[in-house]
Write a structure and sequence with these properties.
Length: 123
């Protein structure tokens, strides 16, 4: 009499389908993280460029004199998507002035901005 072995090594179709479903869910979550990372990198680049432009305009304001220190304009080269405005105002303290630079840009349908302020001593 021959004995029939019914056990065959391998996975059932149901086990394979469950594994594929788990893998698909994990890949969707990882893809979402990648997209979020790319978005954050783009946001960081935008904020860095805006801050660099604001710092540049504050430095220019330190070198200028009189009414030409106040003003605004459009960025050039890599800053072409940004506009800026610089105001120099007196403070309540003698010989201390405040330089404020506002950098604006449009992101999607929203207008964004960065504002940097520096106080300078006119000695």
């Amino acid at each position: 009499m021959k004995r029939i072995c019914r056990y065959q090594p391998g996975f059932t179709f149901l086990e394979v389908m469950i594994a594929v479903a788990i893998l698909a869910i994990a890949l969707v979550a990882l893809l979402r993280l990648v997209v979020l990372g790319v978005h954050n990198a783009d946001y960081d680049k935008t904020m860095t460029l805006a801050t660099l432009l604001a710092r540049e305009k504050i430095s220019e304001g330190l070198l200028l004199t009189g009414a030409e220190r106040n003003g605004g304009g459009q960025g050039e080269h890599e800053f072409s998507d940004y506009s800026w405005e610089r105001t120099v105002t007196a403070t309540v303290f003698n010989r201390i002035e405040q330089i404020t630079v506002t950098v604006k840009w449009v992101e999607g349908e929203e207008e964004r901005n960065v504002v940097l302020t520096q106080f300078i001593f006119q000695g």
